[in-house]
Amino acid sequence: QREMDLLVTLALGQVLSLLICAIGLTSKYLANDFHANTPVFQTFLNYILLFLVYTTTLAVRQGEGNLLAILKQRWWKYMILSVIDIEANYLVLRAYQYTTLSSVQLLDCFVIPVVLLLSWFFLLVRYKAVHFVGTGLCLLGIGCMVGADVLLGRQQGLGEQKLFGDLLVLGGATLYGISNVCEEFIVKNLSRVEFLGMMGLFGSFFSGIQLAIMEHKELLRVSWDWKIGLLYVGFSAFMFGLYSFMPVVMKRTSATSVNLSLLTADLYSLFCGLFLFHYKFSGLYLLSFFIIILGVVLYSSSSTYVVQDPRVYKQFRNIGSQPSSELPPISPRVLEPAVIYTTLSPEQGDEFPVQVA
């Protein structure tokens, strides 16, 4: 059973990687062949699709899962999260204009330590040594891929503002990490449809504003025909599939595991480039792929665990530190009571529910 779960996890991660590869290829054709540099418009189309499918689903729901009920409770949280997600997409796509492909691939991996740290402090996830070894192998695999790019001289796009481009990638990776950890929390504790519906609602609104301000002139310069229209439709479909499918994978695994699996997306793009753009082949590409897969297998081979809310331990210590006169004596023949906490997030002012065996 454990082996089957591992294989399913690997397969799901590679489906996400293939979707990202398709997104990258359509973006490359739009930018290079049709000179359509419209990253905000492309993401805007995705948020519109999310709105049409998932926000309308929330609107017709009844009860606490209804759109209005969700907005009353936590509208401002989803508003902030949608802005973070929009700008993460924009910063990374924008960085390609200033820095090299190799730099983007390498620096984009910064999302992994961001997710690890945020999961540790906010989701209270604890890792074992094998998880850090697996993460290190995945980053080593990316290093091999970047090394192959350097050896083959495929570093076009270096401009005078390379440092600015590198900073854009780091900023985008940081925002991606925040978005992914929030997404993991929401899909595991609330609802996948709620997350996607709120992203569609606020994402389409704020990306529409950004589109009107920043890219309205660029859209007018696009030479519209059926080919470019098909590319936009393809990009939107792949992006919509990625957003719809990622919460399913994340609920089964974690934000960290998903981001490790996504490292192979760059390799799929390179393999496609061998045939579509006549890239030179290097054996380091295959080595990179197997190192990353090995790292993902190692990471997924052992489960992480979530520590209990620190307030629970504080409550337990307070009980245990009471004077002995306040506690009933325990007979030597009677086992010490076992304390089982039935919840880790009680409302403020409530006592922690305790069940004594």
Automatic annotation (TrEMBL):
The chain crosses the membrane at residues 6-31, 43-63, 75-93, 105-123, 129-152, 195-214, 226-246, 258-279, 285-307. It holds the Pfam family SLC35F. SUPFAM superfamilies: Multidrug resistance efflux transporter EmrE (SSF103481). It is a multi-pass membrane protein. The keyword Ribosomal protein does not apply. It is found in: Membrane. GO terms for molecular function: transmembrane transporter activity. This is Solute carrier family 35 member F1. InterPro entries: EmrE-like, SLC35_F1/F2/F6, SLC35F_Transporter. Belongs to the SLC35F solute transporter family. Putative solute transporter. One of its GO terms (cellular component) is membrane. Keywords: Membrane, Transmembrane, Transmembrane helix, Transport. It comes from Amphilophus citrinellus (Midas cichlid). Its main location: membrane.
